[in-house]
Design brief:
By secondary structure, the protein is of the alpha+beta class. The chain has 2 domains: about 55 residues, 2,3-Dihydroxybiphenyl 1,2-Dioxygenase, domain 1, CATH 3.10.180.10; about 70 residues, 2,3-Dihydroxybiphenyl 1,2-Dioxygenase, domain 1 (Roll). About 15% of the residues lie in helices and about 35% in strands. The strands form 2 sheets. A 5-stranded mixed sheet has the order 5-8-7-6-9, covered by helices on one side. A 4-stranded mixed sheet has the order 1-4-3-2, covered by helices on one side. Strand 2 and strand 3 form a beta hairpin.
Length: about 150
């Protein structure tokens, strides 16, 4: 089996990024190193799924059509109630929801982290046999209507 182990983000300032990834996404800080300029975070699956490296003021992510990372996705629960709770956390921490989508196989809420990286918070839809039936790939992306908490 192969799975994504972790990814690394260069960040302008550590504190707001750690706050976002802990309070909004739900990761835990595993530890820091390099005088606080590196922070490892985990959702509990492995030693770290995300490493933040502080680089100070630098150009942010490119916008629009381009080559490179579009967004990261974090599975945050088992049903839409987890997404409603995530929206409430976003509102409580001043994070704007920039989109909501029904992908057939998953339901998603999209936000931007403090450095402008797009982050998908999602839950898988129960009953979709994605491992044996790839027809979900042709499912049209539809708006997702989630209530506010």
């Amino acid at each position: 089996m192969v799975e994504l182990g972790h990814y690394v983000l260069y960040v302008r300032s550590m504190a707001p990024m750690v706050e976002f990834y802990t309070l909004v996404v739900g990761l835990d800080v595993v530890g820091t190193t390099f005088g606080g300029r590196a922070t490892a975070l985990s959702g509990g699956r492995t030693h770290h799924e995300l490493l933040l490296l502080e680089v100070g003021d630098a150009p942010g992510p490119l916008e629009g059509r381009r080559i490179g990372l579009y967004h990261t996705g974090w599975c945050i629960g088992d049903d839409d109630a987890a997404l409603v709770e995530a929206k409430a956390r976003c509102r409580a921490h001043g994070v704007q929801v920039i989109g909501q989508s029904d992908h057939g196989v998953s339901h998603s809420v999209y936000v931007l982290d403090p450095d402008g990286n797009e982050v998908e918070l999602y839950v898988d839809v129960e009953g979709i046999d994605w491992a044996n039936d790839a027809s979900w790939l042709a499912y049209p992306v539809r708006p997702l209507d989630l209530p506010d908490a």
